[in-house]
TrEMBL record, chains A, B:
Domain of life of the organism encoding this protein: Bacteria
Protein name in the entry: PadR family transcriptional regulator
Domain Transcription regulator PadR C-terminal, first and last residues per copy: 97-171
Signal peptide extent: none
Residues that span the membrane, as ranges: none
Lineage: Bacteria, Bacillati, Actinomycetota, Actinomycetes, Streptosporangiales
One Pfam family per UniProt: Vir_act_alpha_C
Native source organism of the sequence: Actinomadura meridiana
Alphabetized InterPro entries for the sequence: Tscrpt_reg_PadR_C (IPR018309), Tscrpt_reg_PadR_N (IPR005149), WH-like_DNA-bd_sf (IPR036388), WH_DNA-bd_sf (IPR036390)
Domain Transcription regulator PadR N-terminal: 12-84
DNA sequence: CAGTGATAGTCCAGAATGGATGGTACAGTT
DNA sequence: AACTGTACCATCCATTCTGGACTATCACTG
């Protein structure tokens, strides 16, 4: 009965809470146009997860008995309670940034000449595009007071995109070292490594064997 | 033979490229202390993935024939080439931010009184902690020129953490509306919604059925 | 030599991922 | 009325990923 509730679970519960009774397809659409910009949930998940939640008693399922026979899910009292409990807990899972560009930059010394430059260039364009997109959405939504909370991810999104954009601009113009400088690190005394080489893929302090 | 290479694959190839021949355990350690702060790769993956890559000919495997019988992996020419090709391509997968706090904020109107306040408070503390941690690491590493590239994720990390921290501070002090204002959106003409309600969990334009 | 903690690796159930596939409903033609 | 394009709606599947539980080795200490 007591199943594990993941982020997908709460996404489904929460969206149904906001939207009222919804089909998986509607959830899929809602996700595509909101949280999916930052945290992509594949649509197949939005078909599987409500089923799980219904089995666990957190959602009620009703099927049209004509036409398309759509499945609609709505919150049960237990579902609403689970949602409430989750929202009441201010602790959160670790904040994750999955950024392939970061990986490429990290490993860039293993690539050809110009790897960093081309990467930075592409990233500037990429984040510029996202930033504009988010800003346009925000402009359209900013004046509807009732939507205040729901616009929040976009606001954070804009700020994060601004941070990325400025980072990659710095990298493009002055390399990682330049970006470092503009982050407020200009180099103090050249204290050497202090046993933290592992961060960089170097050798451990202790010898293996 | 031609297997799909995921982010995990390139992580493994890249780390072995930087470190030289490595065991899964060493990779695990390296990840924990670097990229794992932003993008957690569970250690079991770092045992499975090298095996796959070895089968595909991108890594060579050698096992100690005494004592612990550690498995060490090293890049084959094909592995190095795959890495080079990946680094040479400036395109990247979508930039993802998986942030449970954002979900909670999005759904906060379904929670009890004070949900946003408690959440913002906890988030400020959380991001403050991370920021300090990253800054300390940077301070220790900033003066080792050879590590320039490898320190890059930390630099981006600091900037993103700064963005999050300022966002959550604004939310704590003045609510989402305040954060909005400080993001440069102060409200123009109250153009109403323009059919974009779906972003917010509202109804679609077209009617179901 | 028992105890402790770092090192090293395996295994597994369950969840997530990302397509591929295959329908239905309807609007606008022609 | 047939045709066509496009949303709409849903299921399935092969891989991967995830998070732990579990086992065992080794180095050091008292």
């Amino acid at each position: 009965m007591a199943i594990n509730l993941s982020a997908s679970s709460y996404l489904v519960l929460g969206l149904i809470g906001l939207r009222g009774p919804s089909s998986s397809y509607q959830l899929k659409r809602a996700v595509e146009r909101s949280i999916g910009y930052f945290w992509p949930f594949p649509h197949s998940q939005l078909y599987v997860e409500p089923k799980r939640l219904a089995e666990a008693g957190l959602l009620a399922e009703s099927t049209e008995n004509e036409g398309r026979r759509r499945r609609t899910y709505s919150l049960t009292p237990q579902g609403r309670e689970a949602l409430r409990a989750w929202l009441g807990d201010p602790d959160t899972e670790v904040f994750q940034v999955r950024n392939e560009a970061e990986l490429k930059l990290f490993f860039s010394e293993l690539g050809d000449e110009g790897t960093v430059e081309r990467l930075a260039d592409a990233q500037v364009r990429y984040h510029q595009g996202r930033l504009e997109e988010f800003q346009k959405m925000l402009e359209r939504l900013v004046d509807v007071p009732v939507l205040e909370k729901r616009v929040a991810p976009l606001v954070l999104g804009v700020r994060i995109e601004e941070a990325c954009l400025s980072f990659w601009r710095d990298v493009r113009e002055t390399g990682v070292r330049g970006a470092l400088g503009r982050t407020g690190f200009l180099g103090g005394d050249a204290e050497f490594l202090a046993g933290n080489t592992e961060f960089l893929g170097g050798n451990e302090g202790r010898h293996p064997g």
